[in-house]
Amino acid sequence: xxxxxLALFLSILSIQACWLSSPVxxxxxxxxxxxxxxxxxxxxxxxxxxxxxxxxxxxFGTAFAIGPDLFLTNAHxxxxxxxxxxxxxxxxxxxxxxxxxxxxxxxxxxxxTEVHDLAYFRTKTRIGHYFPLSGGVPDGQLEPLTAVGYPGxxxxxxKSIARASFQESxxxxxxxxxxxxxxLEGLQGASGGPVLSADGRLVGVMKQGSKNIAxxxxxxxxxxxxxxxxxxxxxxxxxxxxxxxxxxxxLADAAxxxxxxxxxxxxxxxxxxxxxxxxxxxIRLLRQSAESGYPPAQYSIGWRYLDGNGVxxxxxxxxxxxxxxAKGGFAAAQFTLADxxxxxxxxxxxxxxxxxxxxxxYRPAQELLDELxxxxxx
Length: 378
Fold this sequence. Notes:
Layout: H1 2-20, E1 30-31, E2 41-50, E3 53-67, E4 70-73, H2 75-83, E5 91-94, E6 103-113, E7 118-123, E8 129-130, E9 145-149, E10 156-159, E11 173-177, E12 194-197, E13 202-210, E14 213-218, H3 219-228, E15 233-234, H4 240-256, H5 260-271, H6 279-291, H7 295-307, H8 315-327, H9 331-343, H10 347-359, H11 363-377
Parallel strand pairs: 1-8
Antiparallel strand pairs: 2-3, 2-5, 3-4, 4-7, 5-6, 6-7, 6-15, 9-10, 9-12, 11-14, 12-13, 13-14
Helix pairs in contact: 1-3, 4-5, 5-6, 6-7, 7-8, 8-9, 9-10, 10-11
């Protein structure tokens, strides 16, 4: 597996290296910038016939080009399309609503990791524009970022409104607050889209959203996956079903071996009723992920204790876990902790934690902070 992944990764680098000395190689092929990012970013749907004509069905996520016929997206995007009943040959990439414009078909699934939520495939048709695998998140990231994708089935460039967090995290995650309409909060359809720096460098891949916060995978982990196939499955000679099954097994193996992200992703799939099993087992995985220091897991187990959902209810334990998540930079946890202080009329602590969440661009925190200021003035 490692050798095949390495060969695929080296082929990408060799393709990209050919174009470094020429901005328009092969006539039309070139690297994309922030301004023309729309040329290399595609909506993911599947084939649906209506009156004999093809129409795109579903807004499952976003995929983007890293080579003339090589694309990245989230593993959960591919899994969602297949869950809707699509075969590999029915999955389509398109750039206009309903799929009335150019359409790309997947030729071969190349690799997948459920641990870091990435999938990598080749299309039947080559395109002329793609993103270079270079850049990464600089130390002490200060520059504005832009996430690109298809939230709500329409292409958008979504600019950051605060400094990205989790930059020093060992989990290869980062979160960034985006300027987008309230109706698009949650970023449905944008999963799998690229996150770009001000000068167009690829710095990560979106994997999910919470309110106006995008949770992302850093480029370092993307390259590690492509280069070594670590925590991933080589799908180049497998059916799509075998690829998905192999990635699921790798996820379960990683969770059993104590990988915090794998433990959390298994829990998340169970919580969303995507997989079934013993609830106690999955809550144990969530707790282990939280104990390893993963802020989203700490936030989730905190709410379990606050609600008494699957565990013995305990406000003390719930708030302790949420505070650990808040201290780890998780904006939703900072907001929740502030609200708990507000309910106890500890306005000083409430405002302090709201300000931490506001500094990350978390929109509900700003709304509550404004509300507190209004009440204080009356």
